[in-house]
Write a structure and sequence with these properties.
This protein is of the alpha/beta class.
Length: 428
Amino acid sequence: MEPQISEIKRAFIVYVDLDANTNFNAAEEFTELVISSGLEIVASLRSPRHTPDPHFFIGKGKVDEVQQLAKECEADVIIFSQPLSPAQERNLEKTINLRVIDRIGLILDIFAQRARTYEGKLQVELAQLQHLSTRLIRGWTHLERQKGGIGLRGPGETQLETDRRLIGHRIKIINHRLEKVCKQRLQSRQMRKRNSIPIISLVGYTNAGKSTLFNKITGAKVLAANQLFATLDPTLRRIETAAGRQIILTDTVGFIQDLPPELVESFKATLDEVSEADILIHVIDSDLDNRQQRIDEVNHIINKIGASHVPQIEVYNKVDLYENLSVRVEENSLNSRTLVWLSAQTGEGINLLLDKLNELISANRSTHYLHIPMSAGKLRAKLFDLGAVRSEDVNEHGKWLMQIELEDFMLDKLCAEANLDVSELQSG
């Protein structure tokens, strides 16, 4: 068995710069990723390249340099900033004689550390198995001399086939279980939509402050740490706006540049919460150096999961860290963008965000005046559950006189379910 990354402590990182002209500080982010995994970085090497070497990804001279430096600093593992092919990973390990992990393997390990719920663990295991299935041969390279054939078929080939079959079987089991999770989530979303409860999803680049904002708004205690992927499992909370409207707020996994496709596919059940939301709160670190690149990366993933149609509020967080930034709301009529500048840590500006949310949620609502008979108690209770009631009184005929704010189609639907005519309720 290969040693797990959690058993390894000292990392030598190799940052391969394939785009020297980018403004995105990818090297710093890669370093943060390694630190988030719990490893100690004992040395690093930066290698600019125009195109990857098909054999080692980096040049042979750089490989020799990595081997020498890794030996001097007593590194346990070599971590590359770019995805490696199975052959490149295998060739590097043979030459350097150390465990080699690429960016995808590193992110998968971090996700495995962070997963807490049954669903999260299933999704991570699926991504890991899909990644591992292309690299099984690495564990059996000492048997490559066995060519197969009558009398020559060795145990290594049989074991490799067995491993592949077991992994394939496990992937089928996990997919089956995740299908059940998807159905349960779909049923929950349909129930919320039937109840006309808006769903607001927090999205954004990892470590932008989503969980801190979520905790501040809902009073929850979701882990909020200054590290990448502190939150992995989605969290939902029901809250009530100042206008009495109930909404569901969801905190989701943070995105990152070049998010591994295995994760995007495996986390479909979770990411469906984003694509089915009524409004997205796109949380952005106000850091002026690289925020646009991160905004573009998040929007790229939002498009990939089919959520580009969902309205966004862009929340520029951490304004308390910058003297030149202040709490405010900006409206851009040219592209219908709403920008809210706030600090999730101190709470400054969160009231502006909640006001804007309430405004967007209520945009399609109309004011209705109803005369509801005492026999329609279920309809009255439903209107209160939806947070639609603004005032109530009782007239001399024993009817409830109610002022409500609700979408026309929703009122029609509720009255139909109660076998009542909307026009009669409105006329009294």
